[in-house]
Design brief:
With 404 residues, this protein is of the alpha/beta class. It contains 16 helices and 16 strands.
Length: 404
């Protein structure tokens, strides 16, 4: 089967659009199932969402899961997942799967500044301090030390594609340079011209070679990643460049300012084709979710719902609560009487408070189930409001309650 014939195994369709903004509801079709969009994609970094079985994750309504190429490369190794017939079978997940390119972890773990990571102190407006440098970037790729044992490795666009093809996810991402808000404008320009855009073309070429070589494997859709930080001209430039290539969809990535999030997403989506899906990398705060969806994002992922849950923070319709607070010790009410989450239906605040105070692992599981269901359902309800043409009313009412 030729590359173009295999590529037909992946498709995207639009069912409804907002009248005054780029937001839409649609469906992504993959070899392992359909994703109705907008959709929140939980993160199972190491082929598992911490504290949950795949069956428990599926019960939250999650339609797909995203794993990390960097972590799976280090352990158990992409060759193990290839022998297991791919990520889904390896982790006993029957639905669609995503992997990111590994670039975020390769670069961020080199310094550890989360969304405002700095890889090159000598080329940044903010030099590195108090941490050994673990990542070195050049125009060909990134050399880095493993955060596990300090061993040296190198990722290039070709290597990222080889790893992701072996892992076998339905949707994979081109290798790109994640810049930071500390990098100045000239560095952002050079990053696009010398690394992110050339690496995108190299990712495409290697992706096609591997797809044609691995004839017995289902098609894996490749998304190009738009960069450009907070600069409108660079965001539009990057989106236009990638839109001209044969990508199956697009990642909306990079350093973002929370205040300008909606505008930045809109700049990118206005330049991208309407007939291909767009994935927002690393977003889960409710007001950010609305901003991304209404400005054109179709799917997005984030570790936050699970991570904050493991720290005792639980979502409710009226904002987040910290279940470890003393006031919940004898509170025998549900987290949310109206919620359909397994946790809210069967367990009281007092019991959850006890689990966390006793450091019982069940607390992590029940909190994660609840938070993942909360965000998955929110996005599903937003989708329905787009289909019903009631988005603005739903948004105003929901946000007023949550942030009251």
């Amino acid at each position: 089967m030729s590359f173009s014939e295999k590529q037909k195994q992946f498709s995207f369709s639009v069912a409804a659009c907002l009248s005054d903004r780029p937001g839409r509801a649609g469906s992504i079709s993959t070899p392992h199932g359909i994703i109705n969009t907008p959709a929140f994609i939980p993160v199972g970094t190491q082929a598992t969402l911490k504290a949950l079985t795949p069956e428990q994750l599926a019960d939250t309504g999650a339609q797909a899961v995203l794993a990390n190429a960097y972590h799976l490369y280090l352990r158990p190794g992409p060759e193990i997942l290839d022998k297991a017939e791919g990520l889904g079978k390896f982790m006993h997940w029957s639905g669609p799967t995503f992997t990111d390119s590994g670039g975020f972890q390769v670069m961020s773990l080199g310094v550890g500044f989360k969304k405002v990571i700095d890889m090159n102190g000598d080329q940044s407006d903010k030099p590195l301090t108090k941490k050994e440098k673990l990542a070195w970037i050049d125009d060909d790729g990134v050399t880095f030390k493993s955060h596990l044992d300090g061993s040296k490795h190198r990722f290039t666009a070709e290597k990222s594609m080889q790893i992701q093809h072996a892992i076998g996810a339905d949707i994979i991402f081109a290798f790109d340079e994640l810049t930071t808000l500390h990098h100045n404008y000239l560095y952002q320009v050079a990053s696009l011209d010398k690394r992110t855009h050339p690496w995108a073309l190299r990712s495409l070429a290697e992706h096609q070679r591997l797809t044609e070589e691995r004839t017995d494997k289902p098609y894996q859709a490749l998304f190009g990643v738009v960069q450009g930080a907070q600069h409108e001209d660079l965001r539009r430039k990057s989106a236009k460049f990638l839109a001209e290539q044969n990508f199956d969809g697009f990642g909306l990535g990079g350093a973002l300012t929370k205040e300008g999030l909606g505008d930045i997403v809109r700049w990118m989506c206005e330049e991208l084709p309407d007939n291909k899906p767009r994935h927002m990398l690393g977003i889960s705060e409710p007001n950010d979710i609305f901003a991304c969806i209404e400005n054109g994002a179709d799917t997005f992922d984030c570790v936050s719902p699970a991570r904050v849950g493991r720290n005792g923070a639980l979502y409710t319709p009226h904002g987040r609560i910290n279940i470890t607070n003393a006031k919940y010790k004898a509170d025998f009410s549900s987290i949310d009487e109206a919620s359909d989450s397994y946790t809210a239906q069967h367990y009281t605040k007092a019991y959850l408070h006890h689990l966390f105070k006793a450091n019982e692992l069940l607390g992590y599981t029940l909190a994660t189930i609840h938070n993942e269901r909360f965000i998955v359902k929110l996005v599903s309800d937003i989708r329905q409001s787009i289909l019903d043409d009631s988005y603005e009313t739903f948004k105003q009412s929901w946000l007023a309650n949550y942030y009251s």
